[in-house]
Write a structure and sequence with these properties.
With 220 residues, the chain is α/β, with parallel strands linked by helices. The protein is built from 9 helices and 7 strands. The chain is globular and about 50 Å long.
Length: 220
């Protein structure tokens, strides 16, 4: 396991995941996740329906995206998580669903295991890139796995968001917590994804999070 993956696994351990699971059971998935799911069900993707599609969800947490898409006809999903605790919770939550056997669970650093994973019609990274120092490596490998659509959420570029992230990281440093949140420029990410053959076709968001949906540009 890479140092990054080990840090993520330590940050999102069994105790934290249990607290988040209890909150999720009361309030449901977070707003950023819900809005990403809404984008995937919008008219923008109508000509490539969810029915029969495959999903690769990176940093998939509790598996909320696959849980929302399987009832719409999703054929299969690959749930990738650096945190064993999140992966275990997602498997437990899916255990009684009729689609449970069509979901595959992989624990590890996506960048390290990407070569072993299949391409998918839809690739999602919900609140993942801000936990990863190597933005180019993560986007390069994940984008190449997307056959049709690629959805990503990350903190907005506003000064107040950058200030909040800086304060969080300072607090962690004082506590000798090795985990860091990373603010990656949206322009840099957008330019990189365009260079990898993806075109932004829709957006959504919250006060803190920006969500973007990209579409694979057909080869000439």
């Amino acid at each position: 396991m890479s140092g990054c993956c080990a840090t993520l696994a330590g940050q999102f351990d069994a105790n934290r995941v249990a607290r988040e699971r209890a909150a999720r059971e009361k309030r449901g998935p977070g707003r950023a996740t819900t809005r990403m799911i809404d984008l995937l069900g919008s008219d923008v993707v109508a000509d490539v329906p969810i029915d029969g599609a495959t999903l690769l969800d990176i940093g998939a947490g509790f598996g909320d995206i696959q849980a929302a898409l399987f009832p719409r006809g999703l054929a299969s999903s690959t749930h990738v998580e650096a945190s064993e605790a999140y992966s275990a919770a997602a498997r437990e939550l899916a255990a009684c669903e009729d689609w449970a056997e069509r979901a595959r669970y992989v624990v590890g650093d996506f960048v390290e295991v990407s070569g072993e994973l299949p391409k998918a019609d839809i690739v999602t990274l919900d609140r993942v890139v801000c936990c990863y120092p190597d933005m180019p490596g993560l986007l390069d490998r994940s984008a190449r796995h997307a056959r049709a659509f690629y959805a990503i959420s990350a903190p907005r570029d506003g000064w107040f968001v950058r200030a909040a992230i800086g304060l969080e990281n300072l607090t962690r440093r004082l506590r000798r917590d090795p985990f860091r949140t990373f603010h990656h420029s949206w322009k840099a990410m957008d330019d990189r994804l365009r260079g990898l053959g993806l075109m932004r076709v829709a957006e959504s968001g919250t006060i803190v999070w920006r969500i973007a949906l990209y579409r694979r540009i057909p080869s000439p």
